[in-house]
Design a protein that fits this description.
By secondary structure, this protein is an alpha/beta fold. It has two domains: 5-79 and 221-306, Glutaredoxin; 88-214, Glutathione S-transferase Yfyf (Class Pi), Chain A, domain 2, CATH 1.20.1050. The chain is built from ten helices and eleven strands. Strands 1, 2, 3, 4, 5, 6, 7, 8, 9, 10 and 11 form an eleven-stranded mixed β-sheet that branches. The radius of gyration is 19 Å and the shape is globular. The mean pLDDT is 97. It binds glutathione.
Length: 308
């Protein structure tokens, strides 16, 4: 099995989703800590401009977005599955709702003054300002939800989630699915906000479920610095192309393209089209330090264009 290198930082909720999936599957991985704000030169050497957290590196193949990263981990370690027969489609759909709608209620709710003060306690004002400025640019494309709306939305979502969970151990029965990991990372962030965690008080099923997810742990890992990870990419050869098996753009392999996320962190990534399948788009690019890499994106949430 190729070395699984996760580029992340400890306070990233989406990274927590993947760390827990690695724990559930009892995998050993390599941890590379990356900066919380831009610039991220070693990340960009690998991705060509994608700046979100986390990314997964397997040699010279770089996987962006946790929906895709979860699929890649599932292919490497199919058991226990994230997508059980019978609930795979429903769990993916609930996960997608959590990663977008639930996440963007949890963040503004937690980032209200009390939560912010707790999270950044002890941090110098310039660090807090740098974080605020970075994230304003990062999410400039999204409508901003204000505190009162975020509180109301999160309260309603928790009520509904409590009811959906009922007496089950996990959202789709006795075993966790991708939906559990996607819901959990949003709530994990709220729990880390200190006083903001009080919103959980009426929801005993959710609290017990959080404990069950936390108990899955993070697997085992070793540690690497980001320049060594760039060197790993440089010395590796990307996987062979998967070709074009689902064409919705009319762009041929090898044509110059640009791809970008459509929600947050919409920085464009340039390269040559390398593969286009039902679920992913892959581009290849040459980097002065990382060499030839292939960067993979899920179709959902990304936009591909021919580069003119
Ligand atoms: N759809 C993406 C969302 C990732 C995301 O928004 N991650 C946050 C951190 S939890 C981020 O990138 N923040 C800005 C940064 O780390 O530079 C995914 O599933 O991976």
């Amino acid at each position: 099995m190729k070395q699984l290198v996760l580029h992340h930082y400890p306070i990233s909720p989406f990274a927590e989703k993947i760390r827990l999936i690695l724990g559930y599957k009892a995998l050993h991985w390599t941890s590379v800590h990356i900066p919380v704000v831009m610039p991220k030169p070693d990340v960009v050497a690998l991705t060509g401009g994608y700046r979100k957290t986390p990314i997964l590196q397997l040699g010279a193949d770089i996987y962006c977005d946790t929906a895709l990263i979860a699929d890649v981990i599932e292919a490497i370690a199919p058991s226990p599955t994230l997508y059980p027969k019978g609930s795979a489609a429903a769990s993916r759909t609930l996960a997608q709702w959590a990663d977008s709608t639930l996440f963007w209620a949890a963040i503004p709710y937690t980032m209200q003054p009390a939560g912010l003060a707790h999270m950044f306690s002890g941090a110098p004002p310039e660090v807090i300002k740098a974080f605020g400025d970075d994230r304003s640019a990062f999410r400039a494309n999204l409508p901003r939800m204000r505190g009162p709306e975020a509180r109301a939305a999160l309260g309603l979502y928790l009520e509904r989630l409590e009811e959906m969970l009922g007496n089950q151990a996990f959202f789709f029965g006795a075993q966790p699915t991708i939906a559990d990991f996607s819901i959990y990372h949003c709530l994990w962030f709220v729990l880390r906000g200190g006083p903001t965690a009080q919103i959980f008080a009426p929801f005993h099923q959710i609290e017990a479920w959080c404990e069950r997810i936390r108990a899955l742990g993070h697997g085992t890992h070793d540690v690497l610095d980001s320049s060594a990870a760039v060197a790993i990419a440089h010395d590796a050869t990307p996987l062979a192309t998967a070709g074009i098996s689902a064409d919705t753009h009319g762009i041929a392999l090898g044509e110059k393209v640009v791809i970008a996320a459509t929600d947050t962190g919409i920085d464009p990534i340039e390269g040559d089209l390398y593969a286009a399948t039902r679920e992913r788009i892959s581009i290849t690019r040459e980097d002065p330090r990382a060499g030839r890499v292939v960067v993979h994106f899920p179709r959902l949430g990304f936009e591909l264009r021919r580069r003119t």
